[in-house]
Amino acid sequence: MADSGRSRGSRRVSRSVGAATGVLALVGLATAPAFASPGVTAMWHLDESAGSTTMVDSSGGGHDGTISSGVRVGLPGVLGSAYGFSGSGSIVRVPDPTGALNPGRAPLTISAYLQVPADLKSGDYNVLEKGQATATGGAYKLEIAGKSSSSKFGYPDCAFNYPGGKQRVYGPKAINDGKWHLVECHLTTDTVYASVDSVRGPALKRTVTSIANTVDLTIGGKPNNSHYFRGLADEITIQIG
């Protein structure tokens, strides 16, 4: 990627850090050593213009994704443009042949700006996922709790599956209000929690061991083409360590 793109990415991370918690991130690392040094593994600005079929990774890590025809590209976003996801067939796939988007045993932060419609109906809404619940080696994901009968309807929901168990945490409030929110999933060395606009939700003591699978990372739905997200997304980052 051109130097100007890298500079823009650096400015955006700095701006986000100043405005929010310090991570605008979705981070992943291949079978990483336990608690590796921090680093941005993938950074997607989602600034592509209408008609684009490739989602560019501005981190320099080469984690570009393939945009399906159902994704609306070039919509107004928080910083630059954003992607719109509207249901079936609306998904981006990022291949991970080397496992570089796996955290292993290291800390992991997933971050994205999201705009979820106020008229959200009951359903399943996966924003980002690496692997599925049954994936060998575990999985991680960010979704919007979609059961209208639940007290957590519209809340960000972060799940971390690992061999032998899983941990799930929710943000401090619902975000299905048609406004932009910075949503983050945090897996630290000793805790697991989700945050909305820099405000933390309830935390759990970390029991997650290692997460490492060979499945594509997907944005806008599950790897098996289901549970499609509905809303807008901008500035997605993955950070490890």
Task: Describe the model.
By secondary structure, the chain is mainly beta. It contains one helix and 17 strands. The protein has a single domain, classed as Jelly Rolls, CATH 2.60.120.200. The chain has one helix spanning 3-19; strands spanning 39-44, 54-55, 65-67, 72-76, 81-86, 92-94, 108-115, 125-130, 139-144, 156-162, 165-170, 180-187, 191-196, 199-200, 204-205, 217-219, 230-240. Strands 1, 4, 5, 7, 12, 13, 14, 15 and 17 form a nine-stranded antiparallel beta sheet that branches. A hairpin with a 2-residue loop joins strand 10 (156-162) and strand 11 (165-170).
In short:
With 241 residues, the chain is mainly β. The protein contains 1 helix and 17 strands.
At the fold tier of CATH, the topology name is: Jelly Rolls
Strand percentage lies at: 35-45%
How far apart, in Å, are the first and last alpha carbons?
A: 24 Å
What is the multimeric organization of the chains shown? Answer: single chain
Q: Classify the secondary structure makeup into a structural class.
A: mainly beta
The biggest sheet amounts to: 9 strands, antiparallel
Please tell me the total number of domains: 1
Count of alpha and pi helical runs: 1
